[in-house]
Automatic annotation (TrEMBL):
Keywords: Hydrolase
Native source organism of the sequence: Spelaeicoccus albus
Classification via SUPFAM superfamilies: Composite domain of metallo-dependent hydrolases, Metallo-dependent hydrolases
UniProt xrefs under InterPro entries: Amidohydro_3, Metal-dep_hydrolase_composite, Metal_Hydrolase
Protein name per UniProt: Putative amidohydrolase YtcJ
Presence of the UniProt keyword Hydrolase in the record: yes
Organism placement in taxonomy: Bacteria, Bacillati, Actinomycetota, Actinomycetes, Micrococcales
Domain Amidohydrolase: 146-359
Transmembrane segments: none
The UniProt record lists the keyword Disulfide bond: no
Region named Disordered: 326-346
Length: 367
């Protein structure tokens, strides 16, 4: 990856050429124009010169450009929680922190963090007090207690325009979250609760009834593929917004491993396409945290993306009976790296967050 004019560090207006750009705006895109912190254009190399004649030029040399990953279950206790995944293509994280650590995660140019505070709030006044003290809060995370505590948490968070987040270990705890939700709806209104997009993180195999109940209440879900028995395919098919955690078996960020675990789930009925898994790990993370509709490389979106070393790109056949991949360009679907080999991971050359480079590998520097 080479820059013909200027330096990659300065990305006020930068034109990337000669690669593969993963974008719903153009499934055959090979070029992308960045202007400040936004994507200005995506398309072909041939058309690129007309829209980016005054831009710095970066030759991708066949590299793949994708939206950056979102780690929806990052470890908030880690000192570098907001930046540890940049070398693996993670540019945004969701974390839960204690009251003493909230200030440490105030937004700045170097971070993109959805912050949940580990706190039980019982009233609208309490929730508003936290929101005034830390306007960047995404919501409140709490243990699954009794129905009254859950209802109070959900109602208070809703009144402040924030999320309530719970972790359910089994269907019993999940049922208590649902009961608390219904109790809160009696006072706060079901429409307001649905608009807040409250969240539950799970690892167990929720029943069909529980999945239907979550969907009817517009709950969103955080899950770590490969860790537990969560029925990711069933939840996504039901229409539940799902976001992926990125931690691998060693605890280090492994977003492609999470994508692979969802694609090649042990239960064939729960397998999803690489495109669906990748979307859950990018746009899904933005949606579940209630953020803007970014997470795709389209004009007007945040310039938050990752550049990966050249590799074979494939499109998974959307048929559960066929364990195969397609290279047919007529599908009109942008390709992703072939993850059939459980040991293979694409190499991250560079990660950019809102137009600012936050990681560049040695391979990227020397290319």
């Amino acid at each position: 990856m080479t820059a013909r004019h200027g330096k990659l560090e300065d990305m006020h207006k930068t034109l990337f050429l000669g690669g593969d750009v993963y974008s719903p705006a153009d499934p055959f895109a090979t070029a992308m124009l960045i202007d400040g912190d936004s994507v200005a254009w995506v398309g072909s190399d041939e058309a690129a010169r007309a829209v980016g004649d005054s831009a710095e030029v970066v030759e991708l040399d066949g590299a793949l450009v994708t939206p950056a990953f979102v780690d929806a279950l990052a470890d908030g206790s880690a000192p570098d929680a907001a930046s540890a995944g940049a070398a693996r293509g993670v540019a945004a994280v969701h974390i839960t922190v204690g009251a003493d650590d909230v200030e440490r995660f105030a937004p700045d140019e170097e971070s993109d963090t959805a912050v949940y505070i580990a706190a039980q709030v019982s009233t609208a006044a309490e929730a508003d007090e936290w929101k005034d003290a830390a306007p960047w809060l995404t919501g409140f995370a709490a243990e699954v207690g009794d129905d009254g505590d859950i209802a109070a948490q959900i109602a208070a968070a809703t009144s402040a325009g924030l999320q309530a987040r719970f972790t359910a270990a089994d269907d019993g705890q999940l049922a208590r979250v649902l009961a608390g939700y219904d109790a809160a709806a009696e006072s706060a209104g079901r429409a307001r609760l649905a608009a807040a997009g409250h969240r539950v993180d799970i690892a167990h195999a929720a029943s069909d009834d529980m999945i239907a109940e979550m969907n009817s209440r517009r709950l969103s879900v955080g899950v770590r593929p490969g860790d537990g028995e969560a029925r990711i395919g069933s939840m996504i098919k039901a229409g539940i917004p799902v976001a992926f955690g990125a931690a691998g078996t060693d605890g280090a960020p492994d977003p492609w491993g999470s994508v692979r675990a969802a694609v090649f789930a042990d239960d064939p009925n729960e397998r999803i396409s690489a495109r669906a898994a990748f979307t859950a790990h990018t746009r899904g993370g933005r949606r579940v945290a209630g953020g803007p509709g970014d997470g795709a490389l389209v004009p007007g979106a945040q310039a938050t993306f990752t550049i990966w070393a050249p590799t074979d790109l494939l499109v998974q056949v959307a048929d559960e009976r066929i364990a195969a991949w397609s290279t047919d360009p007529r599908s009109g679907t942008p390709g992703l790296p072939d993850l059939a080999d459980p040991e293979f991971r694409p190499t991250c050359l560079s990660t950019v967050r809102r137009g600012r480079r936050v990681h560049m590998s040695e391979q990227g520097r020397s290319a």
